[in-house]
């Protein structure tokens, strides 16, 4: 691709030197790496700012419909390389940095990950912003400018320790404060209703607290376009100045108390909510960001059109999971209280503006808020929710002919809780799942009654990933092979062009080169791990990788049980046939999730024992990668050979890590869950290692009555593995709690995620994978087919689906 404006090394050098002098008062020879990084960021920011102004003018002139993507998470990773890549200036920028006496690779590495997310949800949002911009869709993302993103993970004595992740030190180079666009968000107090002399209804607040929402905009460059969108991150400040009289009396903490109470809203991503204060803060975060966002969108719309009657024709608000649900009653509040519309007209506008993406079928993850908390913290919003809920309940009672069990299941306010997912389905004009299986479960199970009521609302948009970042940018050697085989870089904007690789599936030269690329990527990753941790990876073994959030349903524990099985057989049988493996784990456990943290401890206990045992040398190795994050994933994906996607069928909505592995030529060992189902459809049985119960079989087994203890008693292998868990490993730590959880349950059903039921099938799938790996030509052929058929999982395809089927906005023709 030719860059839109070709910046030369000389031009960029001059711009960087100018930034160093004007912004930091430094000449090049005085500049540190941090100065240099910020100067480069500011140069790219200037280029994007010029394009952003042009984009805004175009949108205004054409009266285009705008997409507003609301998500409490945006896991952006690093931006310097990404923006340079999308702007087409990686080469001249690298040359300019090197010419000024700095190491470009080191400089790119100094940037902290913008850790404004927790996992797949936030990474997806970041990929979608890239695709929306690349496809010239007028769009904005909205979230909170968390000072501390997801924590930095440190492993101390095998256990996770959470450290603050203050990414803003260098990361704020990308943020443009827009203080003149500050919004005010109100919490607490009492609501008073008044009627003026014209009989017009007014709502006024007595007491309560205001918090200022200050926008900090991060510009998003598209690939091959001068279109630039924005991620708007809201920072929280108090409108009340510091009370100097308290200071003069020595009451220092009291003097800044009001400020601290406001600023804590933007302090940390997802405070623990297993106590009232944490719940209150999380609800504050959600309302703070949607209120500021709704006010901002409305304000700009009113300036342009002078009325909100056409609001739904000019805007679509897509809410990513239930966290932004309060935008529904907040938009109603603005239309009713500030614009003076009647309920029916306001409701028409809102219900034609907001769409909802569901990301989970797990009941415990569908947000519910205690009504007492909502009514105290957000009294006017509570009144509006009650009205929405009452009208909805009347409709349900009529539709279900008085069947109160169905009414109860689908109600918004019931049993002292406000149910956010039900509010979304009630209000939104579209409800979509994120894989074919997931969307099917929403229709047939989770929202079955509501699907029968409004089937036209329900859609599927299978997730996708930014293939430019997750293939071309992070795996340049594979990118070069694809270009050579497909005749250019066409696939970067037309990901289905990857299909052209299929014609080379029996080409010995291409397969050999693919094998060589994977080997080089493995060596490169091994060198990185050695530098970071001193651990030497066996690059001749299969790199078998499971990286994702640590959660019981994702079944890292099943992987661990299998490794224990392998270890025991290596120890007990010197002739045990087994293809050597390096098992790589990366995962963060939520700070309050005790079982997940215990599983991390277990992985590290097992790793220490296995890696120290001479019997395992060059055969079996287990490594837990500390502080898994986007920038680490970019190094790991190109080196991975076997991708573990082993969640209990029917639990994973989609997954996106599975797509990144596939695109980089790793083969998948997995259940038919989430997007694995669609991967299997394009790959066929022979190009993926499937195992385990299917979603309907999971339901049937549960219905019959699942007894994990029987599996334990009838399988010598499983019994030996679980007994080892109870005994523990060389560090003397026993994992009896985990054994008991699997066999007898702990406050829930035993082995809730069916690890023991799927164990034998999983073990057999691993054996098949090991056999195929021994035939490297066959392995490379399957690897090539995985890459060739991965184009359907590009985020560009997902965004075209949203644009055409839900948002009704045009996309760039290619």
Automatic annotation (TrEMBL):
It is an enzyme of class 2 (transferase). One of its GO terms (molecular function) is pyridoxal phosphate binding. InterPro entries: Glycg_phsphrylas, Glyco_trans_35, Pyridoxal_P_attach_site. Keywords: Carbohydrate metabolism, Glycogen metabolism, Glycosyltransferase, Phosphoprotein, Pyridoxal phosphate, Transferase. The keyword Transferase applies. GO terms for biological process: glycogen catabolic process. Coiled coil: none annotated. PROSITE patterns: PHOSPHORYLASE. Its EC number is 2.4.1.1. Gene3D superfamilies: Glycogen Phosphorylase B (3.40.50.2000). Pfam families: Phosphorylase. The modification N6-(pyridoxal phosphate)lysine is found at residue 660. It catalyses: [(1->4)-alpha-D-glucosyl](n) + phosphate = [(1->4)-alpha-D-glucosyl](n-1) + alpha-D-glucose 1-phosphate. Its cofactor is pyridoxal 5'-phosphate. Phosphorylase is an important allosteric enzyme in carbohydrate metabolism. Enzymes from different sources differ in their regulatory mechanisms and in their natural substrates. However, all known phosphorylases share catalytic and structural properties. Belongs to the glycogen phosphorylase family. This is Alpha-1,4 glucan phosphorylase.
């Amino acid at each position: 691709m030719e860059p839109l404006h070709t910046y030369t090394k000389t031009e960029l050098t001059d711009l960087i030197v100018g930034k160093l002098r004007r912004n930091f008062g430094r000449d090049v020879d005085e500049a540190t790496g941090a100065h240099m990084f910020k100067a480069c960021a500011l140069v790219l920011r200037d280029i994007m700012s010029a394009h952003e102004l042009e984009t805004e003018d175009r949108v205004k002139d054409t009266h285009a419909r705008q997409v507003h993507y609301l998500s409490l998470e945006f896991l952006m990773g690093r931006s310097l390389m990404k923006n340079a890549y999308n702007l087409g200036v990686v080469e001249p920028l690298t040359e300019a940095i090197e010419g000024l006496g700095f190491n470009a690779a080191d400089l790119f590495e100094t940037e902290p990950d913008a850790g404004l997310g927790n996992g797949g949800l936030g990474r997806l949002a970041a990929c979608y912003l890239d695709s929306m911009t690349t496809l010239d869709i007028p769009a904005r993302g909205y979230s909170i400018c968390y000072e501390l993103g997801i924590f930095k993970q440190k492993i101390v004595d095998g256990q996770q320790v959470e450290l603050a992740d203050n990414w803003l030190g260098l990361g704020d180079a990308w943020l443009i404060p827009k203080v003149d666009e500050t919004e005010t968000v109100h919490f607490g107090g009492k609501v008073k209703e008044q009627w003026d002399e014209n009989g017009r209804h007014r709502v006024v607040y007595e007491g309560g607290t205001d918090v200022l929402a200050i926008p900090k905009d991060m510009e998003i460059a598209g690939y091959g376009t001068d279109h630039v969108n924005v991620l708007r991150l809201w920072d929280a400040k108090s409108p009340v100045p510091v009370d100097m009289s308290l200071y003069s009396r020595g009451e220092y903490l009291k003097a800044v108390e009001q400020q601290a109470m406001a600023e804590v809203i933007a302090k940390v991503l997802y405070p623990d909510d297993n106590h009232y204060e944490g719940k209150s803060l999380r609800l504050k975060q959600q309302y703070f960001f949607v209120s500021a966002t709704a006010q901002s969108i409305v304000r700009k719309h009113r300036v342009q059109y002078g009325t909100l009657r056409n609001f739904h024709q000019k805007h679509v608000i897509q809410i990513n999971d239930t966290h932004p649900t309060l935008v529904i009653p907040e938009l109603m509040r603005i239309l009713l209280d500030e614009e003076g519309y009647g309920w029916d007209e306001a409701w028409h506008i809102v219900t034609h503006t907001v769409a909802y993406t569901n990301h989970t079928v797990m009941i415990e993850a569908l947000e519910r808020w205690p009504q007492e908390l909502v009514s105290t913290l957000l009294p006017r919003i509570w009144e509006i929710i009650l009205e929405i809920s009452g009208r909805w309940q009347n409709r349900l009672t009529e539709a279900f002919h008085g069947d109160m069990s169905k009414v109860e299941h689908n109600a918004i306010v019931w049993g002292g809780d406000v149910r956010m997912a039900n509010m979304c389905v009630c209000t939104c004009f579209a409800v979509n799942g994120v894989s074919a299986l997931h969307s099917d479960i929403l229709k047939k199970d989770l929202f079955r009654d509501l699907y029968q009521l409004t089937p036209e609302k329900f859609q599927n948009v299978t997730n996708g990933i930014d293939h430019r970042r997750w293939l071309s940018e992070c795996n340049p050697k594979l990118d070069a092979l694809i270009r050579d085989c497909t005749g250019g870089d066409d696939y970067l904007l037309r990901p289905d062009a990857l299909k052209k690789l299929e014609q080379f599936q029996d080409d010995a030269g291409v397969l050999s080169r693919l094998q060589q690329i994977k080997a080089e990527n493995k060596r490169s990753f091994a060198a990185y791990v050695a530098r970071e941790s001193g651990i030497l990876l066996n690059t001749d073994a299969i790199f078998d990788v499971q990286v994702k959030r640590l959660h019981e349903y994702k079944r890292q524990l099943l992987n661990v049980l299998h490794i224990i099985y392998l270890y025991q057989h290596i120890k007990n049988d010197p002739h045990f046939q087994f293809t050597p493996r390096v098992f790589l784990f990366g995962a963060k456990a939520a700070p309050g999730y005790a079982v997940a943290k215990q599983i991390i401890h277990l992985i590290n206990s097992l790793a220490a024992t296995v890696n120290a045992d001479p019997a395992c040398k060059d055969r079996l190795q287990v490594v837990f990668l500390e502080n898994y994050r986007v920038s680490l994933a970019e190094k790991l994906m190109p080196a991975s050979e076997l991708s573990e996607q082993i969640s209990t069928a029917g639990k994973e909505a989609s997954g996106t890590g599975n797509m990144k592995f596939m695109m980089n030529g790793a083969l998948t060992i997995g259940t038919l869950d989430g997007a694995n189902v669609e991967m299997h459809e394009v790959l066929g049985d022979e190009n993926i290692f499937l195992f385990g119960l299917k979603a309907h079989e999971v339901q049937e087994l549960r219905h019959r009555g699942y007894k994990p203890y029987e599996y334990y008693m009838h399988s010598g292998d499983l019994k030996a593995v679980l007994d080892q868990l109870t005994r523990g490993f060389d560090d003397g730590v026993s994992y009896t709690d985990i054994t008991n959880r699997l066999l007898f349950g702990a406050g829930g059903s035993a082995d809730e995620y069916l690890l023991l039921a799927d164990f034998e099938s999983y073990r057999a799938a691993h054996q098949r994978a090991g056999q195929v790996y021994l035939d490297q030509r066959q392995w490379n052929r399957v690897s090539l087919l995985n890459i060739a058929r991965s184009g359907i999982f590009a985020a560009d395809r997902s965004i075209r689906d949203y644009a055409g089927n839900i948002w009704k906005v045009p996309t760039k023709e290619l």
